[in-house]
Amino acid sequence: MIELTAAQVAAATGGRLHADPDVTVTGAVIVDSRQAGPGALFVALPGERVDGHDFAATAVEAGAALVLAARALDGLPTVVVDDPQAALGDLARHVLATVRGRADGAVVPRVVAVTGSVGKTTTKDLLGQLLGPEAGGEHAIIVPKGSFNNEIGLPLTVLRVTTATRYLVLEMGADRIGNIAYLTRIAPPDVGVVLAVGVAHVGHFGSVEAIAQTKGEMVEGVVDGGTVVLNADDLRVTAMAGRAMPGTTVQTFGTIPSADVRAEDITVDPAGRASFTLRVARADGADEQRADVALQLVGPHHVSNALAAATVALRLGVTASDVARRLSGATALSPHRMAVTERPDGVTVIDDAYNANPDSMKAALRTLAVMSGRTRRSVAVLGEMLELGDGARAAHDEIGRLVVRLNIKQLIVVGDGAYHIHEGAMQEGSWGSESIFVPDLAAARSMLDESLEPGDVVLVKSSLGAGLAELGDHLSMALTPKDNNK
Q1: How many other C-beta atoms are found inside a 10 Å radius of the C-beta of residue 14?
Q2: Is 277 in a helix, a strand, or coil?
Q3: Along the 486 residues of the chain, how does pLDDT read in single tens digits?
Q4: Burial, 337: exposed, middle or buried (Cβ in 10 Å; 0-12, 13-18, 19+)?
Q5: The dihedral of CA 348, 385, 411, 440: what is its sign?
Q6: Which one, of 145, 158, 155, 141, lies nearest residue 107 by Cα?
Q7: Which residues, in sequence order, are CB contacts of 314 under 8 Å at separation 6+?
Q8: 373 labelled as ligand-binding?
Q9: Residue 406, number of CB atoms within 10 A of its CB
Q10: What angle do CA 112, 187, 117 make, to 5 degrees?
Q11: How many Å separate Cα 21 from the centre of its chain?
């Protein structure tokens, strides 16, 4: 973060100063006292299990220069605010606006923000790999690790901005109307991307229409003269073009002929990796640009994510040939997202247990079917998809039926919340032990350790809260007991 005095932090957050006004924050902004270092600013967030105020002294002892808190803390340099989480957002907004408003003629950060029901993290990671070489150094581009996409994670990412930052790539998530609007007020995007509208978090929103309304807040939050990037293959997303402000440029990506940036001649190899021809329309009516792309990411659904990232990079001045080359070399950076491990015992593990909704579940299962082909046994280990509201039972049932239609050889359903996947498979025609329900991770782990054979391809997929990421880690590192006993 740029250096700020305690007085400046108080002014930016509307706080009351209980510290020397000249105390200077020179380090990172943190919410975990274990990350405290010299010059840090510790934000004391109240939580369901722990209260950050209880750890403020520990952070100061470790070197933190200042604490942002909801109450005065005896003996600790503190800026007191009504709501530390809201103040964190206010501070991030101030820092970014300060860096963007520099009057010295230097290059200011270009903010790229991505939202959508699926694909946000992968697209964000691809953008980092496409724009990184343009930034001129690792410190000139900021791309959050994992999914720092909420009211806490996004401000923490924004607060990493310095005067050396050229690109700030952000992921914006939402579980209620107004979330995206709030995040775009903290970091108004120069380029805002909407990937897709699905049923993720529909339990919070109440309807898919409410989800579309919220994702469209990205379009309204783009800076004057900025660019909106929309998925031409999703009708709810293309309809958002009407919400763009005057002076905003709208660019589309997809597989339909009218998309500005599109993929043609898509093929998928036995390992589940897609190749395609990237075609880029020219605004001046000249011949389209073309380049071949061979993705290293597993799953044909990543074509859409790649097109979204390509559209942004092209808009920011990267050539089509460089985009294609960098996409072809891009790798998966975030854990538990279609991470493929080839075990020494011949088992292939696809760990996609970071998150799940009906759309991503279907995409992962189709990839499993492609990778196993006709000669390898396919095993789907599926857990609960959370936050689906009243439609949860039907959504899980549908996934079970799809497993049967895709001819997945073995289905293991883990946990009571996912039971209706097993029920759907049985109703669709699964018989015998083709579909098995187990109550918990321990039972699933024991079964898999005993039953997996060389040549099997196993998919682990659930929402993060269902806990199957732990099983994904185990399977990715494990050898079967039979191999260990050799």
Answers
A1: 12
A2: strand
A3: 899 999 999 999 999 999 999 999 999 999 999 999 999 999 999 987 889 999 999 999 999 999 999 999 999 999 999 999 999 999 999 999 999 998 676 778 999 999 998 899 999 999 999 999 988 776 799 999 877 889 999 999 999 999 999 999 999 998 889 999 999 999 999 999 999 997 766 666 778 899 999 999 999 999 999 999 999 999 999 999 999 999 999 999 999 999 999 999 999 999 999 999 999 998 766 778 999 999 999 999 999 999 999 999 999 999 999 999 999 999 988 889 999 999 999 999 999 999 899 999 999 999 999 999 999 999 999 999 998 988 999 999 999 999 999 999 999 999 999 999 999 999 999 888 999 999 999 999 999 999 999 999 999 999 999 999 999 999 998 654 444 433
A4: buried
A5: positive
A6: 141
A7: 261, 280, 320, 323
A8: no
A9: 17
A10: 60
A11: 38
Determine if residue 451 is labeled as part of a ligand binding site.
no
Say whether 120 counts as a known binding-site residue. Answer: yes
Task: State the Cα angle at 330 between 344 and 324, rounded to 5°.
Answer: 135
Q: Is 122 marked within a binding site?
A: yes
From residue 337, alpha-carbon distances to 130, 308, 327, 382 in Å are 19, 18, 17, 14
| Cross-strand pairs, 30 | 42
162 is in an annotated binding site: no
Give me the amino acid identity at 34: R
Is position 379 annotated in a ligand binding site?
Answer: no
E-strand stretches of 98-226: 110-115, 141-142, 167-171, 191-194
Q: Is residue 178 part of an annotated ligand binding site?
A: no
pTM of the model: 0.90
What residues contact residue 345 under an 8 Å CB cut-off, 6+ apart?
454, 479, 480, 483
DSSP letters for 404-425: HHTT-SEEEEESGGGHHHHHHH
Total Cβ atoms within 10 A of residue 486? 6
Residue written as tokens 């980092």?
128
Q: Which amino acid is at 239?
A: A
Instruction: Return d(Cα 12, Cα 87) in angstroms, integer.
Output: 8
Residue 136 per-residue DSSP state: T
